[in-house]
Design goal:
The radius of gyration is 19 Å and the shape is elongated. By secondary structure, it is mostly beta strands. The strands form 2 sheets. Strands 3-5-1-9-8 form a 5-stranded antiparallel β-sheet, with no helix packed on it. Strands 4-2-6-7 form a 4-stranded antiparallel β-sheet. It is built from 3 helices and 9 strands, in the order E-E-E-E-E-E-E-E-H-H-E-H.
C-alpha cells in the first residue's frame, strides 16, 4: 500500500458513553464491545470495557453519569459490516444480585465530526409468569450469553423483550482515505446508503 494508492481506509473513533436514564433503577454500571464485519480489523485502541458504578445525581434529570471513554481505530477494504457498539447495563436487584438492566446497540456514525446517539435499551423477558417469578426469586433474570447477539439480529425475532431506559453516547469520528477509494463522506444530510454507490448492504454483519 502506498500513500497515493491506498488499499484500505481508516475509521478513528473517540468519544464516551456519557450517561443513562433508567427511572426505576440506580447504582448501575455498563459494559461495551464492538461488532464488525469480516473485512474490518481494529488497529489500535480498546475493543471492550467496563465502567465504574454510578448513582443518580441530585438534579431533576436523574441521569446516571459515566463519561466512560471510547477510543478505537479500525481499518477496512470496504464499508460492508460497518462497526456497531453494543452497550449492556447492569445493576443490583432487590436481593443484591447483579442483573442486566438493558441491552442496546448503534452503528458508529458514518460521517466525520461530532455526533450524539441515544440508544433505547431493552431486556429479555421470561415467557411465562412462573418463569418470571422463579427468576426473580433466584436472582437469575433472563440475559444473553453473548451480548453481541444484540447487534446481529439473528434469532432476536423469537425473543420476548421489554423496553426500559436510554443510554447517551458522544462520538468524534475521523476517516482517512475513504475518498481516495471512491466513498463520499462529506454530506451529513443523506444516509450512507445513498452516498456510497452500490452499498445497500453497508450495515450488514
Amino acid at each position: 500500500m502506498t500513500a497515493n494508492n491506498p488499499s484500505v481506509f481508516l475509521l478513528m473513533v473517540n468519544g464516551q458513553i456519557e450517561c443513562a436514564n433508567f427511572p426505576d433503577y440506580d447504582d448501575l454500571y455498563c459494559k461495551y464491545c464492538f461488532v464488525y464485519g469480516q473485512d474490518w480489523a481494529p488497529t489500535s485502541g480498546v475493543e471492550e470495557g467496563i465502567s465504574q458504578i454510578t448513582s443518580k445525581g441530585r438534579d431533576s434529570s436523574q441521569n446516571l453519569v459515566w463519561n466512560f471513554p471510547l477510543d478505537i481505530t479500525f481499518k477496512s477494504t470496504n464499508p460492508f459490516g460497518w462497526p456497531q457498539i453494543v452497550v449492556s447495563v447492569y445493576g443490583p436487584d432487590t436481593f443484591g444480585n447483579d442483573v442486566v438492566r438493558g441491552y442496546g446497540a448503534v452503528h458508529i456514525p458514518f460521517t466525520p465530526g461530532r455526533h450524539t446517539r441515544n440508544i433505547p435499551m431493552f431486556v429479555p423477558e421470561s415467557t411465562s409468569r412462573l418463569q418470571k417469578f422463579t427468576s426473580w426469586l433466584m436472582g437469575r433474570r433472563p440475559e444473553y450469553t453473548d451480548p453481541k447477539v444484540v447487534a446481529q439480529g439473528e434469532g432476536r425475532e423469537v425473543t420476548r423483550v421489554r423496553s426500559q431506559g436510554f443510554v447517551t453516547l458522544q462520538f468524534s469520528i475521523v476517516t482517512k482515505d475513504m475518498k481516495k477509494l471512491g466513498y463520499d463522506t462529506t454530506s451529513t444530510e443523506q444516509t450512507p446508503t445513498t452516498r456510497l454507490a452500490g452499498t445497500e448492504q453497508l450495515y450488514g454483519t
